[in-house]
Each structure stands twice: as structure tokens, then as C-alpha cells.
């Protein structure tokens, strides 16, 4: 990003009135001067942690800040522009074709009160910036994959190893990520500083939306008419799960984000934050854990990208499964 003086609303004289004050700043020092005063009440504009982009600005009311020591009512407005249009390629090849690279970016989380199916859990709507990319599996963990870890298949809908595993607790899903990390590390296939885990709910919604802001990532007319093409849910599931990736994917190539089984996320369940946040996640112990996405037993409103709810981490249900991400290990 490049910081530059965008406009000087009033010129600063070289000397203060009556002597004894500070001399006016040079144009070249304004960027440093203004950014050093973050938190002062004389600043307004885009202040705080922001998503990247063009036209971000701060305006400094120097007249009030410096108690009228100057002959003009000085205000300085600076902008920061993303001059590189940065692209974030994956740091290394995906572990297999089933893994999709999700680059850093930002999105508006939750849903407006006017959205069909909206609940109070989906507000306020924070602007979320994810500063680190991650890989996400394009399908939910299957019964065959989970059985390789556990030795048994807990699913209430067995019979096809390609169906998503379900009837598992949040702890089961978390431990699977730990096991997979160790397996891949032992096999020499895991890069240092990376690990497998559940997605945060911000990562999950970002990947689910795939750059869209509509209720469903595939449906620009904001209705649920196309859901049967993309998700297994109550009207088309026949009261059972189905093999993963047997419906159409979202724009980023991810299957079953809107249906088949609910997906555990790593977060504790609670209110969404407000304003702008970076790498937001609610960590720590919790009585409820977040789950996202619709399921084979649910109606259309739970299939929306913004739908979120919580359940006891000890719950076992034929509607609860998960998917895994490969992400940088926290520093």
C-alpha cells in the first residue's frame, strides 16, 4: 500500500502566531505525523483495522488539536491506496485436488434484517478481514475417511463410505484434525508451520459465500429455487445423507456448503462482533460450539450462507458432520 497526502485543506504557515508554538509540518512529514495520532479525538475517517482497498482516508483537524496556534484552520486529509492489486497465490501446491486454496480477503459477515430467513444471531454485520489464506477440503469428511482414523463408523446413515460422517461430537471432529496433522507430518507431507483443524466460522462463511453477498452463493435472484441443484435438504434428501460432492459446487469449487450435514466450526457460539475486525474467532471454553450450513433434515432458511447456530460440543446427531482446513499454525 502507498500512503500519500491527498489534500491539504488549509496551508500551514512556517511559524505559529506570536511565537512560542511549534512550526508547521512539511508536506513530506504529514503521513507520519497523522498516523502517529491514531486514537485522538481530532481524527475522523477510516480509523482502525481495515480491509485493503482504494480511497481509505484519515482527516486530521490540526486547528483544534494544536489549540488554534496557527493562522488558518488547518485540516489534512491523507489516503492510502492499494497500488499493487495484490494477488495471493498458494504458498505451496495443494495436498491433493480435493483441497482448494482460499486467499486472504474481506467480506460482510451475517445478514441484513431484510433477508428472508434472517435471525438475530446473524447481526450485527461486521466487516471481516482474513489476513491469512488457507486450504479447505472441497467436501465434508466422509465415513471412509473418518473410519481410517477411528477404526469404526459412528454414522447413523452408513452403507456408503462416500457419505459424510455424522453422529459425531465437536471433540471428535477436533481430534480428527489433530490426528490428520500427525499422520501427514509423520509421512513427510506436511509443511512446517501448518496444521489441519476445524475452520473458524469466519473462514467457513467466507469460503461459503465465495465472493457473493446473496442469501445463497449460487442464487443471484435471492430465492431458494435453485437449492435442490446445490444442496441436499429436507425437500429433496429422502430423509438421509447422500454421497459428498453429488450436488453442484459453489463458485469456489466447494460442495455441500448449503446442505447434506451441518458442519462444526472451531468457535464458541456467541454474538457477532461489530465494526471491522481482522481474523476474528471466538476462542476458549464454551458451553455451545458453532455449527454452520444446512442439513438433509432442514428447510431452506438454514441453508443460507449466513445461517449460524450453536450446540453442546457433546451433541451427537445424524445431522452433524464437519470439514477440515489446512491453515498456518498461530504464532
Structure description:
With 331 residues, this protein is an alpha+beta fold. It has seven helices and 15 strands. The protein has helices at 30-35, 62-65, 143-150, 170-186, 201-209, 227-230, 234-237, and strands at 2-8, 43-45, 56-61, 75-81, 99-102, 105-108, 127-130, 134-137, 194-197, 262-268, 276-278, 289-292, 308-311, 320-321, 325-328. The strands form four sheets. It has a four-stranded antiparallel β-sheet with strand order 1-4-3-2. A four-stranded antiparallel β-sheet has the order 5-8-15-9. The protein starts with a strand and ends with a strand. The model is unreliable at 1-30 (pLDDT under 50).
Structural class: alpha+beta
- Gross geometry: globular
- Helical residue percent? 10-25%
CA radius of gyration is: 25 Å
Strand order of the largest sheet: 1-4-3-2
**Count of DSSP-assigned helices:** 7
What are the low-pLDDT stretches, counting only 5+ consecutive residues below 50? 1-30
Separation of the first and last Cα atoms: 24 Å
State the oligomer.
single chain
Summarize the biggest pleated sheet: 4 strands, antiparallel
Q: How many strands?
A: 15
Estimate the mean pLDDT confidence: 84
**Order of SSEs, N→C?**
EHEEHEEEEEHHEHHHEEEEEE
- Which percent range describes the beta-strand content? 15-25%
Amino acid at each position: 500500500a502507498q500512503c500519500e497526502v491527498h489534500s491539504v485543506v488549509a496551508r500551514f504557515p512556517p511559524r505559529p502566531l506570536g511565537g512560542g508554538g511549534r512550526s508547521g509540518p512539511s508536506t513530506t512529514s504529514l503521513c507520519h505525523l497523522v498516523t502517529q495520532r491514531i486514537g485522538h479525538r481530532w481524527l475522523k475517517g477510516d480509523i482502525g483495522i481495515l480491509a485493503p482497498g482504494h480511497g481509505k482516508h484519515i482527516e486530521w483537524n490540526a486547528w483544534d488539536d494544536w489549540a488554534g496556534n496557527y493562522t488558518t484552520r488547518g485540516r489534512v486529509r491523507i489516503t492510502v491506496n492499494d497500488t499493487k492489486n495484490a494477488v495471493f497465490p498458494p504458498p505451496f501446491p495443494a495436498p491433493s485436488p480435493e483441497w482448494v486454496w482460499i486467499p486472504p480477503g474481506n467480506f460482510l459477515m451475517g445478514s441484513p434484517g431484510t433477508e428472508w430467513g434472517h435471525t438475530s444471531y446473524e447481526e450485527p454485520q461486521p466487516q471481516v478481514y482474513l489476513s491469512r489464506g488457507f486450504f479447505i477440503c472441497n467436501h465434508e469428511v466422509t465415513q471412509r475417511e473418518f473410519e481410517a482414523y477411528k477404526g469404526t463408523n459412528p454414522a447413523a446413515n452408513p452403507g456408503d463410505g462416500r457419505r459424510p460422517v455424522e453422529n459425531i461430537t465437536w471433540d471428535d471432529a477436533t481430534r480428527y484434525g489433530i490426528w490428520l496433522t500427525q499422520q501427514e507430518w509423520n509421512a513427510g507431507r506436511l509443511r512446517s508451520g501448518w496444521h489441519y483443524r476445524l475452520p473458524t466460522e469466519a473462514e467457513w462463511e467466507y469460503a461459503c459465500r465465495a465472493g457473493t453477498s446473496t442469501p445463497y452463493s449460487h442464487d443471484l435472484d435471492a430465492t431458494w429455487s435453485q437449492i435442490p441443484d446445490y444442496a441436499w435438504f429436507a425437500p429433496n434428501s429422502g430423509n438421509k445423507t447422500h454421497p459428498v460432492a453429488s450436488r453442484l459446487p459453489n463458485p469456489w469449487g466447494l460442495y455441500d456448503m448449503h446442505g447434506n450435514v451441518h458442519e462444526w466450526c472451531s468457535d464458541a457460539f456467541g454474538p457477532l462482533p461489530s465494526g471491522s475486525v481482522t481474523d476474528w474467532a471466538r476462542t476458549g471454553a464454551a458451553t455451545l460450539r458453532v455449527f454452520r450450513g444446512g442439513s438433509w433434515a432442514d428447510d431452506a432458511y438454514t441453508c443460507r450462507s449466513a445461517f449460524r447456530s450453536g450446540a453442546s460440543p457433546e451433541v451427537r446427531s445424524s445431522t452433524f458432520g464437519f470439514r477440515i482446513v489446512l491453515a498456518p499454525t498461530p504464532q
